[in-house]
Design a protein that fits this description.
Elements (H helix, E strand, L loop, with lengths): L1 H4 L12 H5 L7 E4 L9 H11 L6 E4 L6 H9 L3 E5 L5 H8 L4 E2 L7 H6 L8 E6 L1 E2 L5 E2 L7 H7 L2 E7 L44 E7 L13 H19 L9 E2 L4 H12 L6 E4 L2 E2 L1 H8 L3 E6 L1 E2 L3 H9 L1 H4 L3 E3 L2 H4 L2 H7 L2 E5 L2 E3 L4 E2 L2 E2 L3 E2 L6 H5 L4 E5 L3 E2 L4 E2 L1 E2 L14 E4 L2 E4 L5 H11 L3 H17 L13 H9 L6
Parallel strand pairs: 1-2, 1-5, 2-3, 3-4, 5-8, 8-9, 10-16, 11-13, 12-14, 13-15, 16-21, 17-24, 21-25
Antiparallel strand pairs: 6-7, 17-18, 19-20, 22-23, 25-26
Helix pairs in contact: 3-4, 4-5, 8-9, 9-10, 16-17
Length: 497
């Protein structure tokens, strides 16, 4: 079966076992892996852990496309094998070690990664370990359920290890691989419609740099995104009502593509299209495509869905492969530097929806650090979309920790997106369109419409005092701006009695 997948016969001699392949990875290796929530290698990380359990002392520097599953980030973090990690991640143990200073972590905008690697900013690309569905007759790679940064990693790596996945046999034709020129010779990326294909259906590869090929029966263990609940459904209703109103008023074309991020709010928005007759022909231009995209395709509501990865439940994955002949015409998987390209996002006029940890009264957004210091996951592609979308929407439940934390605060404890990148703020209590408003008007509306009722009085009191005592374009009392955060750190509750 493996030789059927490795159709470039000279590479069949490279078929080996994980232990032999993993010997190409030693202490200090810069390891670049495929994966963007899905499509990450599974065998090599397990083999590295086995070596550590047998007493071998070594650490590696790990570079991915974004988050991976427990079979990469989780097991490597638990085995204490990582000296550093870039970029976005979502593993609990890795998060703890990053916050403890045991793993060096640098957060990056996802659209910029590949160009930085090609420029040499990340150091030498020693080894690339990538998951693939097949190797073509000419020695090129067919990716699996994600593309991420794999094309650049394969192009730049000194050594390439390939894990052929047994669970991705029919993916040829769904990928669109395009690597743009680097400055100062970069030409425009010629995508003018969401479904435009501008590249090749495979990743070009130099077969001479392949040192090992493995056969993997392991499956992706993707994050389980919670189904929509009352809060996420209400937030989605506000968004859809607002966009519908903007279209009716002629301020927005009905054909703008959507980027919905990941998670329950994203699923709620996409699910809202199912029953809504105002949205009958949708384009999706995003990073990660979830189960709800398949539902919309089945209903004939999607013209095209473009992303860098597909993160599907087991049930949806079976459905996808059983009927891939239908989905292949609608879905395009691209490198992340294309799916997240500021140039393309702005040209297409994407409606961008991303999630915050907290939002302050003037519209600044913290999407990465709890209480300003503890990293959650990373900025991911939120900046790529928020800064360049035709309509940039930030969503968050109004409270966290069972109501003890307000997501609306006087001043965010860490800034990922300034007020200038945010058009709309939404919680389950309301929506504020900040575009026509001055900062003071934004503050008044956000407090009245977005904050939880239990926190409105103290937010309003702070704002009124700031206006009276300090004034200015955006009134603040600096020594009091973090009083709600300080209250939580001291008492475990932001409520001020």
């Amino acid at each position: 079966m493996l030789t059927d997948r490795v159709r470039y016969k000279p590479l069949q001699d490279k078929i080996t076992d994980p232990a032999t392949a993993a010997r190409h990875i030693q202490d200090g290796t810069n390891l670049f892996i495929s994966g963007f929530t899905a499509g990450y290698p599974k065998l090599i990380p397990q083999e590295l852990v086995k070596r550590a359990e047998q007493g071998e002392k070594f650490k590696i520097n790990l570079f991915a496309g974004a988050s991976t599953g427990d079979m990469v980030d989780g097991i490597l973090a638990r085995a204490d094998l990582l000296a550093s990690r870039r970029p976005y991640m979502s593993d609990k143990i890795m998060r703890e070690k990053i916050n403890q200073g045991k793993i060096a972590f640098k957060d990056d905008h996802l659209s910029q990664l590949s160009a930085k690697v090609r420029a040499g900013e990340w150091g030498s690309c020693d080894v690339a370990v990538v998951e693939a569905a097949a190797i073509t007759e000419k020695g090129h790679l067919i990716p699996t359920m994600s593309v991420g940064n794999t094309p650049t990693y394969v192009q730049e790596a000194d050594k390439i290890i390939i894990e052929i996945s047994a669970h991705s046999p029919q993916l040829e034709g769904i990928h669109d691989i395009f690597i743009p020129e680097d400055p100062p010779y970069r030409m425009p990326i010629p995508i003018y419609r969401t479904g435009d294909r501008i590249g090749k259906p495979f990743i070009e590869m130099d077969p001479s740099r392949v040192v090992a090929i493995l056969f993997s029966t392991e499956q992706d263990h993707c994050p389980i995104f919670m189904p929509s609940n009352a809060i996420s459904t209400r937030i989605a209703e506000y968004i859809l009502d607002f966009v519908r109103h903007e279209i009716i008023k002629g301020r927005m074309p009905a054909s703008l593509p959507w980027q919905a991020g990941v998670g329950d709010v994203a699923n709620a928005v996409l699910s809202g299209f199912i029953e809504d007759k105002n949205f009958e022909s949708i384009d999706i231009f995003s990073e990660v495509l979830q189960d709800s995209v398949l539902d919309l395709i089945d209903l004939g509501k999607v013209r095209a869905a473009s992303g860098s990865a597909m993160t599907l439940s087991e049930k949806a994955r079976d459905r996808f492969f059983n009927e891939i002949y239908r989905y292949r015409d609608k879905i395009v998987l691209r490198p992340v530097e294309i799916s997240n390209s500021p140039e393309v996002i702005r040209r297409l006029g994407v409606i961008a929806i991303n999630t915050a940890i907290e939002v302050d009264i003037y519209g600044q957004v913290n999407s990465t650090h709890v209480m300003g210091t503890q990293l959650m996951n990373g900025i991911g592609g939120s900046g790529d979309y928020l800064r360049n979308g035709a309509l940039s929407i930030i969503v968050t439940p109004s409270t966290a920790k069972g109501g003890l934390i307000s997501a609306i605060v006087p001043m965010v404890s860490h800034v990922d997106h300034s007020e200038h990148s945010v058009d709309v703020v939404v919680t389950e209590y309301g929506l504020v369109d900040t575009r026509p408003l001055t900062p003071r008007q934004v503050a008044e509306q956000v407090i009245k419409k977005c904050a939880h009722p239990e926190f409105r009085d103290q937010l309003w009191d702070y704002y009124q005092r700031a206006v009276r005592e300090r004034g200015g374009h955006e009134p603040h009392i600096l020594e009091k701006a973090f009083f709600m955060h300080q209250r939580f750190l001291e008492c475990g509750d932001m409520h001020v009695k």
